[in-house]
Structure formats: structure tokens, C-alpha cells
Design brief:
heterodimer; A: mainly alpha; B: mainly alpha; 2 domains; two-stranded antiparallel sheet; about 75% helix
């Protein structure tokens, strides 16, 4: 039983960490209808950024802020020079563009800073957190808390003036234009916000497993989270992350020893397939009605 | 100029209906085919085995993918998995003593059936969700191949292709393998070129352009989407088997991972979706340009004009490859086929700038 509880807790914490990555995807999709396959690479770049700034001797909080600014700008640049030209193009173009960006950044980051994994010490120590008879990784606990805070902030943000604009843009581009909302501005802001989410995810995942190109592999679970929760739902990103994290921890915990490992990817794939089969718009996503 | 139409009179319907009605197209195809046929004579073994052979085989895979993505408009992000199924099936069949000719057909059928199972599941959705579903297929197939030791022999094991003969010719020499690949390329090219002229191809195009509208005019969209998945996976499976037997000669699961899928889609896109010549141009571009540019850069670095660290050097092909995908999508979304087409149309009416109409 305690084995199960431990799997459950750690799975839930991992899932919350996934939510941080997924939140960036949701923010971009909500405003522009683009599924950002480069979010994993953005997380990696953010991790490299924080590592680079700390290696220059900045304290962690200052490095994080500097990385926030850098990633916000990177998000704006990507939107302005790459995605804006893709408005109205077929979906394959947008998917391949973000995948191309992913490939480029995967070469760019390690190419400039070296392939070996960078240790990102955020001062939490390696001693596990003991709650009753459950052991949990401190980094994951803090990451989970940050994810909850981020989701809360995102929900609150959508109640502000700018957030209302973003909601309008996510509803319909043309009608937003007609009432004087700058759609380009809103989409750019959402890319910047996704950059900020990437900093949180990059810092926490980077300190959990080191900063290198393998951070881009977070894209796959994050996509599964987004599909499961609903591609345009912030609450969905949170709950989807929790469910996927728990499934991806409990099932491998019992099955891995039987079939020889790495069932986590299978769980992720099966979650994607089943969601698409039975409820393509996810748990909380908006059901799209297509017209000729 | 080259494509001059003056003096070309088609006096029979069969003449206008032929594959290449313009003589210039015909002799170009003839020259290219002769060049390909004579390649073992004038090419060194190194070029033949490490450039020509993968180019031809990956072109067939790209053409199979372009049948699905370009003609039928169904996105597929698990095509490397389809090829993997074909490769592993053919190897296991030949190991069981089945002759290669039948093993190739079997591998195509196996890929087509599994591809169709996923296709049928995925065809309830479209666009982005189809991308996700096929992506999930890629990871599931990868996992099954890696972890079921009967199939792959273990995660890190390589599976040697047995020594076989095709039509009584042993497939050991490079020349024999090259001609098998070339024969398969010719079959696929003729298939794709002709499919556009059949009712099947026109139905696929109708489904691509707007599936509801196609349904309104009486095209059974589910049937044709499934047929597109079947045909494309069949060709992709055999291409995977040919890739295993003619090029790799020993397969590991990592030769068919998600990166290969991205590469195949990039080949189809860079070449131009739905175009046959684009399939070849795109494959050549994606396979060769990073190598060429890397050689150029290492030559510059070797002359001491630029200082590049070794880790950056190692990642330059990847950056170039990503930048190339982005660049094509931004500046020539219709791909190399469009560039070729523009040049051809220019030459058709040369010395005028445009036709009068």
C-alpha cells in the first residue's frame, strides 16, 4: 500500500511538472490556434538560459528573472518572424514550422554551450522529503507547487483587462479585430507568456535531471497532457497533467518489471490514442463544430 | 526554349493522354533513367552506396508519404514506424525461409494492415488530432519493436538481414542491391504518376480539398481515406524492407525512430507535397545539403577563416536542417517542385515572359 501511495504522490508531482510545460502549449493554442511543438525546445533553451546566467555568478532569482526576460523576448521574436507569416496556412505548415524550430533549437543550444548535461543547483538539496512513509524528491515538490501557482496565475490573468482581450482573440480572430483588439499583439503576448512558463519548467526540470537536449523530450508527455485535458483549457492542463503523471507512474511501477521497462511512453501513447478516439477535444476543451 | 511546343501536334487522343505529352519532358525522363541505369558504371562504390542508394530508397518512402499527405491530405507523423514494420516483417519472413519476392509483398501487407488499424482509429478525427494519433502510433510501434525481443532481439540488438536472392540473383554485391532499389523506385514512380489520372486519385484529391464537399458529390470519404492509408502504408512497408535489405543490411529500432519520421515529412514538404519530382528533389535536398554545407563550413574552418568549437561543429548539420525546414516553409511553401515548375513554365513560353491568353 505504501508502495502504491509513493507511486501516486510521485506521479502526481511529476504530472504537475508536466503541467508547467503543457501550460505554455495551452496559452499559445488558446490565442492563436497553433499547437507549439517547439515548447520542449523552449523549455530546454530556458534551462540553458538560467544555467548560463547563474554561471556568470548571478544569484538564482536574478538569473531566473533575466531568463524570464530573455524567453519573453524569444517568444515575441518567434511569433513575429516565424508564426505570423503562417496565418491562414494549412495545419501541416504550422506543425512542421514548430517542429523545424524544435530541431533547430536542439542543435543551437547544445551546439553553443556543449553537449554535456549542465547541473542546475537551485539550493534544495538532494535529501528526499519524508512524509509519513512516503519519500518524495524535493525538486518535484517545489516544482509541483510552482506549477499550481502558475496555473492559478494564468487563471487570474485571464480575468484582467489584457486577459479578457486574449480570451476574445481565442474566441474569434476576425470579430476581435472588428472591435478594435489587436490580434497580433495578443498572440505575441501569449507567446511571451509561454516563454515565461518555459522558464519555470526549464528551471525545475533542469535541476531535476540536468540541462541538456533531453529536456526537449518533455514535449511528448506535455502534448499528451494537452490532448487529455483539452487543448485550450488551463484547468485541463492541470488535471490532465495530474492524471497522466499518476498513470505514468503507477502503471510502470507495477508493469515495468514484467515487460522489461519504459512503459511510461506506452502509457502516454495510449492516453493520446484513447482520448482522440473517444473524446478528441479532451476533458475540458471546447468542442469545435466544423462547417463546409 | 527546351520545352518548345511549336511543331508538336497531337493528332490522336492517346497522344495527348500520355504521361508526358511534351517531347522535352520525355527525353529528360529518358536521360535521367539512363543515367540512373548506368550509375554503377560511372560512379564510385562510395558514392553509389552512401549517396545514390539512400537517396533512391528514401525517395520511394517520401513518394509513399506524399501519396497520403499530398494527394489525400491526411497527415501522418508515424511513417518511420510503418517502414519499421515492413523492415522487420521482411527480415523475419526471409529468416523463416520465405523467398524475398514474397517476403516483400508480405511486409507491405503487414504494414498496410497495421497502418490501416491505426488509420481507421485515427480517421474519426482530422488535422491536428490526426497528427497526434499517428504520433502515438509511432511511439507505440517503436516500443513494441524495442521491447518484444522476438521482433528485435532486444533494445540494443541489431538484426542482420539474411543473405537472399531476388529473381535468382544473389543480393550480395552493391550493384545487385542498387538495381533492386532502382526497380522499386521505378515501380513506385509509375504508380504515383498514374494514380493521379485514375478515379481513385481524383477521389483522393477531392477528399483532400474538402472532405464534406467530397461526400456531397458522392465520394465515400471513409473508404477513400482508408484506401489512401492502405496504399501508402503498403508502399512505405516495402520501402522499409528495401531499405533494410539494400542499404542498412542490419536493422536496429533506432533507425526508424521519430526523428526519421520528421525527416520524411520534411522531405515531402521541402520537395513539395503531392509532386513526384518534388519527392526526389526534397529527399536529395534533406539528405545531402546538410552534408554539403557541413563540408563547406569545415573547409572554411580548416583554412582558419572562422573559429568554430567542436561541439558547435557537431551540431551544425542539425541546425542547418532545422533552418532549412523553416526557410522553405517561410519562403517557398510549395517546395522545390514549385521552383522546378516555375522554371519549366518560363522555358515553355520563352522568349516571351508569359503566355497570351
Amino acid at each position: 500500500m505504501s508502495y502504491f501511495l509513493e507511486l501516486l504522490t510521485n506521479g502526481a508531482l511529476t504530472g504537475l511538472m508536466y503541467s508547467m510545460v503543457a501550460l505554455g502549449i495551452v496559452l499559445i493554442y488558446k490565442s492563436s490556434g497553433v499547437l507549439n511543438f517547439a515548447q520542449g525546445a523552449l523549455v530546454m533553451m530556458a534551462g540553458y538560459g538560467v544555467w548560463l546566467f547563474t554561471s556568470w555568478g548571478l544569484p538564482l532569482w536574478l538569473a531566473a528573472i533575466a531568463a524570464l526576460v530573455a524567453m519573453f523576448v524569444l517568444g515575441l521574436v518567434i511569433e513575429r518572424f516565424l508564426l505570423r507569416t503562417m496565418v491562414g496556412q494549412p495545419i501541416i505548415m504550422v506543425v512542421m514550422l514548430t517542429l523545424g524550430l524544435d530541431v533547430f533549437l536542439r542543435g543551437f543550444g547544445p551546439g553553443l554551450l556543449g553537449t554535456e548535461p549542465k547541473q542546475l543547483d537551485i539550493g534544495l538539496g538532494l535529501a528526499p522529503l519524508i512524509m509519513g512513509d512516503i519519500l518524495a524528491n524535493r525538486t518535484y515538490v517545489v516544482g509541483g507547487i510552482i506549477a499550481l501557482v502558475l496555473v492559478g496565475l494564468a487563471l487570474a490573468f485571464f480575468r484582467t483587462r489584457l486577459g479578457t482581450k486574449l480570451r476574445a482573440v481565442s474566441d474569434d480572430h476576425v470579430s476581435s479585430w472588428s472591435v478594435g483588439i489587436s490580434v497580433e499583439h495578443a498572440v505575441a503576448v501569449s507567446w511571451g507568456l509561454a516563454g515565461i512558463c518555459a522558464v519555470a519548467a526549464g528551471t525545475m526540470w533542469g535541476s531535476a535531471q540536468g540541462v541538456d537536449w533531453s529536456l526537449t523530450a518533455l514535449l511528448f508527455p506535455a502534448v499528451a497532457v494537452v490532448i487529455l485535458g483539452g487543448i485550450d483549457s488551463i484547468v485541463g492542463a492541470l488535471l490532465g497533467g495530474l492524471i497522466l503523471g499518476i498513470l505514468g507512474s503507477v502503471i510502470p511501477g507495477y508493469v515495468d518489471s514484467l515487460v522489461g521497462g519504459s512503459t511510461r511512453d506506452v502509457v502516454t501513447s495510449v492516453v493520446i490514442l484513447l482520448t482522440i478516439l473517444f473524446r478528441p477535444y479532451g476533458m475540458f476543451g471546447r468542442e469545435d463544430i466544423e462547417r463546409i | 526554349m527546351f520545352y518548345r511546343l511549336s511543331g508538336v501536334y497531337h493528332t490522336r487522343y492517346s497522344q495527348t493522354r500520355q504521361l508526358w505529352p511534351i517531347p522535352a519532358d520525355r527525353w529528360q525522363v529518358g536521360i535521367l533513367f539512363a543515367l540512373a541505369l548506368l550509375a554503377p558504371l560511372y560512379m564510385s562504390n562510395l558514392y553509389l552506396s552512401s549517396y545514390m542508394l539512400p537517396w533512391l530508397i528514401f525517395s520511394t518512402a517520401t513518394l509513399a508519404l506524399t501519396l497520403l499527405m499530398g494527394l489525400a491530405g491526411q497527415l501522418h507523423f508515424g511513417f518511420a514506424a510503418v517502414m519499421a514494420i515492413g523492415a522487420y516483417t521482411s527480415i523475419h519472413l526471409t529468416r523463416a525461409g520465405v523467398p524475398l519476392e514474397i517476403a516483400l509483398l508480405g511486409s507491405g501487407l503487414m504494414s498496410a494492415v497495421i497502418g490501416c488499424v491505426f488509420g481507421a482509429a485515427a480517421l474519426r478525427v482530422k488535422g491536428l488530432y490526426l497528427v497526434m494519433a499517428t504520433l502515438a502510433m509511432q511511439f507505440l510501434v517503436d516500443w513494441v519493436i524495442t521491447n518484444v525481443t522476438v521482433i528485435s532481439g532486444g533494445a540494443t540488438a541489431t538484426l542482420q538481414t539474411p543473405s537472399v536472392r531476388f529473381l535468382f540473383i544473389p543480393l550480395q554485391s552493391l550493384t545487385a542491391r542498387y538495381y533492386l532499389a532502382l526497380a522499386w523506385t521505378v515501380i513506385v514512380v509509375l504508380f504515383i504518376l498514374n494514380i493521379k489520372r485514375t478515379s481513385f486519385g481524383r477521389a483522393l484529391v477531392a477528399v483532400r480539398d474538402k472532405d464534406f464537399a467530397a461526400a456531397v458529390i458522392g465520394v465515400n470519404i471513409f473508404k477513400y481515406k482508408l484506401l489512401a492509408f492502405f496504399a501508402s502504408s503498403f508502399l512505405g512497408g516495402i520501402s522499409g524492407a528495401i531499405l533494410a535489405f539494400c542499404f542498412y543490411k542490419a536493422v536496429t529500432p533506432s533507425q526508424f525512430n521519430f526523428d526519421v519520421t520528421i525527416q520524411l515529412v520534411a522531405m515531402a514538404l521541402v520537395g513539395g507535397l503531392g509532386s513526384v519530382i518534388g519527392g526526389f528533389l526534397g529527399t536529395g535536398f534533406v539528405l545531402l545539403i546538410p552534408i554539403v554545407l557541413l563540408n563547406l563550413i569545415s573547409w572554411i574552418v580548416g583554412n582558419g577563416w572562422l573559429n568554430v568549437s567542436t561541439s558547435l561543429m557537431a551540431h551544425i548539420p542539425m541546425m542547418l536542417y532545422g533552418a532549412m525546414i523553416i526557410g522553405f516553409l517561410l519562403f517557398e511553401p510549395l517546395g522545390l517542385a514549385k521552383i522546378y515548375d516555375n522554371a519549366r513554365k518560363y522555358l515553355l513560353v520563352w522568349p516571351f515572359r508569359h503566355t497570351q491568353s
